[in-house]
Amino acid sequence: MSTFLITGATGGLGSSVIKALSKDINPNEIAVLVRDAQSEKAHEYKAQGFDLRIADYNDADALTKAFQGIEILYFVSANDIFSRDAQHKNVIEAAEKAKIKHVIYTSAGRKDESQESPVAAVMDAHIKTEKWLQESEMLYTILRHNLYTEVVPMFLGDKESLLNSKTVFLPTGEGKTAFASRNDLAEAGAFVLKNHKAHQNNIYTLDGLEAVDFTKIAAILSETTREEISYISPDVETFKTTMTSYGVPKDAIGMMLSFSLGIAQGEFDSERKDLEKLLGRKPQALKSFLSEVYA
């Protein structure tokens, strides 16, 4: 019988947690939640000896069935912002019905929890889910992730695109962010899973090594690429118009704008040492990560 269950097993974070956890825990003690049992990743997990469980966050009954016999749940937050409330409620209720003992939830770091926050739409479900967990009879650990370092190349494009524009063009002002790598966050999550009794009913703020602004990021990119990369922080309308002229989809522009304004407001300017303590080492520096991507 499996002790642990990792949701989002085919996604970037979930698969990284499974990889880190299985270094010390036998795969037959680890259940992995997938939506499609016939997917290539599902077949890989099954061949490696993991306990394959099938369910979708939209199907409460399937979740309850998938959670049977599980003690510790690593709950990766849903990607669909507009469906998160209902999906997360399904997961929490299914976990309670299946009598899961401890839920480790991947939340997000923030400062302003009001509806006026630029990232309110993203944070609302996290705030509600944390509350539901704290009001449940289950033990919980809440991992408030800062923005992934992977967000930077997602916003800036690949090396070719960056060198064509030689510009970081985002309305982030002078705001700072302590970006943390997905691998470091996954390693910390696996550590909490393996040592869950020591982390019951705790909330951790998982920040990267240091908070940096995009002026500093442009300087790092200049050093890495050996090209002069400038940073421009446009006003909102200029950003929208420029991105639209390059054919960027409206939803993508909205997402970039939301996070950029959140950064400008200081939502992610935090340098707590929780991640370093869980890892037992310094987190990967943003410069190191960007060197891997853009060198």
Folded structure, characterized:
The protein has 295 residues and is of the alpha/beta class. It has a domain at 4-147 and 179-208 and 271-283: Rossmann fold (3-Layer(aba) Sandwich), CATH 3.40.50. It contains 13 helices and 9 strands. It has helices at 12-21, 40-47, 60-66, 84-97, 120-135, 151-156, 159-165, 182-194, 214-225, 236-245, 250-265, 274-279, 286-294; strands spanning 4-6, 30-34, 51-54, 72-76, 102-108, 139-145, 167-169, 202-206, 230-232. The strands form 2 sheets. A 7-stranded parallel β-sheet has the order 3-2-1-4-5-6-8, with helices on both faces. The longest helix is centred in the middle third of the chain and has 16 residues, at 120-135. The N and C termini lie far apart (46 Å).
Features:
single chain, 295 residues, alpha/beta, Rossmann fold, 7-stranded parallel beta sheet, two-stranded parallel sheet, 13 helices, 45% helix, globular
Short synopsis of the structure:
With 295 residues, the chain is of the alpha/beta class. 45% of the residues lie in helices and 14% in strands.
Assembly category: single chain
Tell me the helix content.
Answer: 40-55%
Q: Gap between N and C termini, in Å?
A: 46 Å
Return the CATH class of the domain at 4-147 and 179-208 and 271-283: Alpha Beta
Spans of at least 5 consecutive residues with low confidence: none
CATH level-4 homologous superfamily of the domain at 4-147 and 179-208 and 271-283: NAD(P)-binding Rossmann-like Domain
CATH topology of the domain at 4-147 and 179-208 and 271-283: Rossmann fold
The total count of helices amounts to 13
- Spatial order of the strands in the main sheet? 3-2-1-4-5-6-8
| Strand element count | 9
Mean pLDDT, all residues: 96
Biggest β-sheet description: 7 strands, parallel
Strand content: 5-15%
Shape: globular
CATH architectural group of the domain at 4-147 and 179-208 and 271-283? 3-Layer(aba) Sandwich
Series of secondary-structure elements, N-terminal to C-terminal? EHEHEHEHEHEHHEHEHEHHHH
* Radius of gyration over C-alpha positions, nearest whole angstrom: 20 Å
Provide the structure class. alpha/beta
